[in-house]
Amino acid sequence: MAVNEQEWTEHGEKDAARHREKIKKAIMENIADIISEESIITKKGDDIVKVPVKGIKSYHFKHGEKGGAGAGQGKGKKGDVIGQRKKGGKPDRKAGDEPGIDYLETEITIEKLIEMMLKDLGLPKLQKKETAQLEIPKGWTFEDIEKKGLQSNLDKKRTIKQAIKRTAVFVKTIMEEAGCTKEEAEAALWRAKGDINEALELLKKGRVTLEEGEVPKPYIFNDDLRFRTLKEDVEYQSNAVIIAMMDVSGSMSTYKKYIARSFFWWMKNFLETIYENVRIIFVSHHAEAKIVDEETFFHKGESGGTHCWSAYDLAHHLTETEFPTEKWNIYAFHFSDGDDWDTRKTVESVKKLLPRCNMVGYGEIHDQMDDVDWLQGKLMKDLVKGLNLHEIETEDGLEIFENTGEEALFLGITINGKEDIYPALREFLKKER
Amino acid sequence: MKTRIQKLNEMDKVIQEIAKDLGLDWFPQEFDVIPERKMIELLAYRFPRNFSHWSFGRDFEFERTKHDYGFGIPYEVVLNTNPSRAFLININPFPIQVLVMAHVYAHNNFMKNNIHFAPTRRDVLTSVSSAATRFREYEEIYGLDEVEKIIDAGMALQYNTNFDFFIKDGTEERSERLKYQKTKKRDPLDDFFPKKPDGKEYKKRQKECLRRTPMEPDRDILLYIIKNAPLEDWQKDILSVIRDQMRYLYPQMRTKIMNEGWATYWHMRIMNRLFEQGYLTAEDHGYYSLYNSRVLAMNKYHLNPYIVGLKIWEDIEDRWNKGKFGKEYRECDDLRVKEKWDKKLGLGKEKIFKVRDTYSDRFFFEEFLTEKLVDDLDLYIYASIEHPDGSITDIIIEDDWQVIKRLLVQAHTTFGIPHIEVTDGNYKGRRELYLKHLFEEAPLDPEYREKTMEHIYDLWQNPVHLETVEIELKIPEDRLAILSDIFGSIPQKILDELGIDKKEKGVIYTYDGKKHTVWEIELKRNKNSQLRLS
């Protein structure tokens, strides 16, 4: 018989897993670049970021062609526009026209990114305050994800993720089948209420245009639904408060502020991921310090003179009132460019605050492009003197100063650019400290 | 009741009868009916039971995700083996299975008769699965990372090899011939009256020649590395397997338009007979038309080989039936006479069989792509223009049939594989590898160049140099649109129209295992490497 049924064992699954592992590795290798991406701090945990991943393409010698020219088929004469698209929305050329298929970007959620970074960083050390140790019912932890389950256990995040993933595949398929741009494919799919066959029909009939302000979104199908199974979980944990202090004075350029914000944004996301009941107090200061809400802290600029002590004093005040040291683990972090009007007073304020905290961290942002270079680094120098700090070696090549002998740790780090954000986070949050 | 498989076996016999009647012959044909997942895997891995690699896994996962929502499954995979093996998806509807089987017989006929397939190993499947077993053993002995490093590097160079099957590569005979040719005195009459090499001069030249490696520039970078890099046997084995697999697949790349067009041409005719003779029903016909129209759909960003190939074959048949060829026809300038031209020669069938036997896509286009076909197929060349805001417009830049034809011929000559040769394997006398890019169309992609050089370093274990040409573009400021990266493949005429000034400079890139460096050299351009389209 010439026609037979055949079976053979597949290994696609195993190799696909190996590929995913390589993506993960590539992300970790580029993490310092990825996390200092400016647009990231406007995102939320389940937002998806596009991460350019180097090192998982199949490389070979080829001609450079980003936009590229090619042969196509259809009605039209010289000068006619056949497509309009955003950058990155490459016309989908079939494999076989040229050797090899490559995927340039991978998508990852901020949540996942944080999870990967935490694995790399380890957990920050939180000292136990016996009296304040609380039994924290973490409620239920989710053990597994399944396609069927109780409506109340619907994992919305994963469901939507699944729908997004599937929609992306649909769009790509439509682009291939109909030979249209990404925008057209998305519009058609939206019009067809997610039905891919109908979308293809629509495109066959002609252009699909959207009303102004109409944005195509994924439709959720039954098949996209994801449910969790539950397990009860109780955890014992300490209370922790983070006092995030940022210099917003005139000498802090947009770039420096962005570095400080980027640092705090990641720190906040880390700590919120790890601890159920971490409180974060945002303090911004120029000549005067004040407590601000998160939105203001991350997005509003200010200017004026600089009194760093005002922030440390405000922090000290907080430890005496709202967050007594017997009940709270207190961590204070301060970012500035070191251009401080009264460093003597600031050193005094730090000395006063330090015993009340588990740790005080100071990040000083230097900008090589800055004209007022002589002012930079002033505070760090005086802190080194005043607190008797000594420099320690790190593998990242950061300039780090540490105190000795004290109960509470003081850590000063010089940051020379956005590539230092990740190493600084690592140092501040290091498990062994 | 008959099982599905029994029904397909019956149809197989009928198809064979019809195909025979239509004048086709073929290698014995076997069909394997497999689940979709296996088909996806087959597509990603190129061969059944091929070795394991993450890039296959990546492609597998991508295709599978696509498939999970019911799309993107190929209709068939046929392997160029004897007996020929083809794969059908178990859930395809009956009339589609029949269509695919008819299509497969035509592929089989093409691969049996086309000269470019003649030197390929028709027993490739045995070597594929035994290689997979060996690779697994290497993994156990040397570890996944080490094996992967070699496979990665081999894959990076798989296109830079010698695809000319008619010259046996790397045989003793070839190097002896080279030695002889290089060392004898050059005299124009040498080819006619070979002389015995004489004493001193001969020895001197021979010495010089033996010192040089390779003796003449070698386009087969992969083979050169296999033979000359300090590699262990298992590493050489891996590289050779990758090289052999690509060489095996190359004739298919080289004849894709012809082959798919040929298969479509015949499956349509076989299917018509099946409908006429009542083997398939009216309902089946509905399915068939739907699938067939999808196979033949045009795409504005790439050529569909099924429709382009089909139309060219049909045009050849028509022209040779009517005698629309030769001097008399070519020189007739009365369009009305030309249109009605019919000498009733009936040579169409004979001609297409002849073309099937010896042509490749490049010559197929060069000889048979006519103005009328370019018109009927609505072919054009487009370019992507990037605007300052980052948006991109795709615009038709050429609809002149002769330019289109020239570009297609060019694209099917090089397949976008840059022509790079090993010119020196002992550069500076330090066993460094010197590669030269024979600049024809476009500069190399910088990211891909860097990473590929790193892969080569992994094998060569000594610095790697690459000589190439870079292009600088001066774009008038008043232009809103920027032509991005398409300059190389765009005719000079069009650049002139757009007021774009082009400047070329020669460079050598070096990778020494740690960092990439570059320096400029004087650009020497010989007559033969003029931009083809200028």
Which helices and strands occur, and which strands form pairs?
The complex is a heterodimer of chains A (433) and B (534).
Chain A lengths: L2 E3 L6 H18 L1 H5 L12 E5 L16 E5 L7 E5 L19 E5 H12 L12 E13 L9 H23 L3 H10 L4 H10 L21 E11 L2 E8 L6 H21 L3 E8 L3 E4 L1 H6 L8 H13 L8 E8 L6 H11 L5 E7 L12 H9 L3 E3 L6 E4 L6 E7 L5 H9 L4
Parallel strand pairs in A: 8-9, 8-11, 11-12, 12-15
Antiparallel strand pairs in A: 2-5, 6-7, 9-10, 13-14, 14-15
Helix pairs in contact in A: 3-7, 4-5, 4-6, 5-6, 7-12, 9-10, 10-11
Chain B lengths: L3 H18 L7 E6 L1 H10 L8 H15 L8 E3 L4 E6 L4 H20 L10 H19 L1 H14 L14 H12 L15 H13 L9 H8 L4 H22 L1 H21 L5 H14 L9 H18 L3 H6 L3 H6 L7 H11 L2 H8 L2 H6 L2 E8 L5 E7 L2 H14 L5 E8 L4 E6 L8 H15 L3 E11 L7 E2 L8 H6 L3 E11 L4 E6 L13
Parallel strand pairs in B: 1-3, 7-8
Antiparallel strand pairs in B: 2-3, 4-5, 4-9, 6-7, 8-10, 10-11
Helix pairs in contact in B: 1-4, 1-11, 2-3, 4-11, 4-12, 5-6, 5-10, 6-10, 6-20, 7-8, 9-10, 11-13, 13-16, 17-19
Structure overview:
Chain A has 433 residues and is of the alpha/beta class. Among the domains of chain A are: 153-224, no CATH class; 238-429, Rossmann fold (3-Layer(aba) Sandwich). Chain A contains twelve helices and 15 strands. In chain A, the strands form three sheets. Chain A has an eight-stranded mixed sheet, sandwiched between helices. Chain A has a two-stranded antiparallel ribbon with strand order 2-5. In chain A, a hairpin with a 6-residue loop joins strand 13 (390-392) and strand 14 (399-402). In chain A, helix 3 (110-121) crosses helix 7, helix 4 crosses helix 5 (182-191) and helix 4 (156-178) packs parallel to helix 6 (196-205). With 534 residues, chain B is of the alpha+beta class. Chain B has four domains: 4-114 and 255-295, no CATH class; 126-187 and 200-253, no CATH class; 305-379, no CATH class; 395-529, no CATH class. Chain B contains 21 helices and eleven strands. Chain B has helices at residues 4-21, 36-45, 54-68, 94-113, 124-142, 144-157, 172-183, 199-211, 221-228, 233-254, 256-276, 282-295, 305-322, 326-331, 335-340, 348-358, 361-368, 371-376, 401-414, 446-460, 492-497; strands at 29-34, 77-79, 84-89, 379-386, 392-398, 420-427, 432-437, 464-474, 482-483, 501-511, 516-521. In chain B, helix 5 crosses helix 6 (144-157) and helix 11 (256-276) crosses helix 13. Mean pLDDT of chain B is 84; it is low at 478-489 and 527-534. Chains A and B meet through strand 1, helix 1, strand 3, strand 4 and helix 4 of A and helix 1, strand 1, helix 2, helix 3 and helix 6 of B.
